[in-house]
């Protein structure tokens, strides 16, 4: 598995569906354990491909920063223990911290609840030349808030605005927002790390049994697990309703972390490659300035 194969592999998991395709997307059609016929013996090759991808990302990110024209927003959504933190850590390990911003969105604060649902994420959008990473995002408004109606009640919306159409309206708002970002040079790339219920149970038990992982466990994780079917349905409709050409979804198999990270790296590389990035080209006056500076430096004793 080399870098080219890595990028081709990612295309399988990119949303081949669009919001207007008649609702063909089904989450059940995606296997959380899929590894494209690779097995444990292929892990070393996958790690090599990931290392190659990390190097490629570092170079692309450097050009993104130097060119200062585009920004890239990577959104990670998943059930608990799907590996969001690990994917970000490993895939972005070679990126210059100056050119990358990571934000995690947990339960909203009182101040955030007094604003519209996009407000807290809008404040954290990446600047030109930078990669922004959202660990969870405004998509929680069509996921956790939908599964748990009490979360919606805390937002204190005017009663006449809370109708049966609210989720379709939020999907519309999100599509419009992401189209707006794209038109302003912020490219959005979204990942759903698709973990199975069986694998999540295994990872929860590891957190409970391993003292070094105890800090990762929360009783809230078990509570959310009790709503597994509701969350799967919410994810399915959210992805189906917000997968667009401007902001595609990648449904990434997450039962095997080594494979998840390879696919995520490939997708990010593919996204950056699509931007025709290059280092800024200097004009004639700048070239003369550089020549003069070189001459002056060489003349020093």
Describe the structure.
With 301 residues, the protein is α/β, with parallel strands linked by helices. It contains 13 helices and 5 strands. It has helices at 3-13, 43-67, 84-91, 110-113, 119-122, 144-147, 149-153, 166-183, 197-209, 219-225, 228-242, 257-273, 284-299; strands at residues 71-78, 100-104, 131-135, 186-194, 249-253. The protein has a 5-stranded parallel sheet, with helices on both faces. Helix 1 (3-13) packs across helix 12 (257-273), helix 2 packs parallel to helix 12 (257-273) and helix 3 (84-91) crosses helix 12 (257-273). The longest helix is centred in the N-terminal third of the chain and has 25 residues, at 43-67. It starts with a helix and ends with a helix. The model has no long low-confidence stretch (mean pLDDT 90).
Give the structure's gist in a few sentences.
This protein has helices at residues 3-13, 43-67, 84-91, 110-113, 119-122, 144-147, 149-153, 166-183, 197-209, 219-225, 228-242, 257-273, 284-299, and strands at residues 71-78, 100-104, 131-135, 186-194, 249-253.
Describe the largest sheet.
5 strands, parallel
Helix- and strand-based class? alpha/beta
- Strand order across the largest sheet: 2-3-1-4-5
How much helical structure, as a percent, in the residues?
Answer: 40-55%
Q: How many strand segments? A: 5
Query: Between the first and last Cα atoms, what is the distance in angstroms?
Result: 52 Å
What spatial form do the alpha-carbon principal axes imply?
globular
- What integer value in Å does the Rg equal? 22 Å
Q: From N to C, what is the helix and strand string?
A: HHEHEHHEHHHEHHHEHH
Enumerate how many helices there are, as a single number.
13
Mean pLDDT: 90
Question: What share of the residues does DSSP label as strand, in percent?
Answer: 5-15%
Task: Return residue spans where pLDDT drops below 50 for at least 5 consecutive residues.
Answer: none
């Amino acid at each position: 598995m080399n870098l080219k194969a890595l990028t081709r592999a990612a295309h399988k998991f990119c949303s081949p569906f669009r919001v207007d395709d008649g609702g063909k997307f089904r989450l059940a059609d995606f296997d959380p354990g899929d590894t494209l016929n690779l097995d444990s013996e292929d892990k070393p090759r996958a790690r090599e491909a990931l290392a190659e991808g990390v190097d490629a990302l570092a170079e692309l990110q450097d050009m993104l920063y130097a060119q200062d024209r585009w920004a890239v927003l990577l959104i990670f959504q998943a059930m608990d223990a799907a590996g969001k933190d690990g994917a970000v850590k490993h895939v972005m390990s070679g990126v210059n911290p100056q050119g990358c911003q990571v934000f995690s969105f947990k339960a909203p604060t009182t101040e955030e609840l007094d604003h519209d649902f996009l407000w807290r994420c809008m404040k954290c959008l990446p600047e030109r030349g930078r990669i922004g990473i959202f660990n969870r995002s405004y998509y929680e408004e069509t996921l956790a808030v939908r599964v748990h109606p009490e979360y919606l009640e805390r937002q204190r919306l005017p009663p006449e605005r809370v109708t049966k159409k609210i989720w379709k309206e939020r999907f519309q708002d999100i599509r419009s927002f992401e189209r707006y970002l794209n038109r302003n040079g912020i490219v959005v790339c979204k990942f759903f790390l698709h973990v199975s219920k069986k694998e999540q149970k295994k990872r929860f038990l590891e957190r409970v049994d391993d003292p070094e992982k105890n800090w990762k466990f929360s009783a809230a994780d078990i509570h959310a697990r009790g709503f597994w079917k509701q969350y799967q349905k919410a994810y399915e409709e959210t992805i189906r309703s917000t997968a667009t050409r401007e902001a595609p979804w990648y449904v990434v198999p997450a039962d095997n972390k080594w494979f998840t990270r390879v696919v995520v790296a490939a997708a990010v590389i593919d996204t950056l490659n699509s931007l025709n990035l290059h280092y800024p080209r200097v004009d004639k006056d700048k070239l003369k300035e550089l020549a003069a500076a070189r001459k002056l430096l060489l003349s020093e004793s």
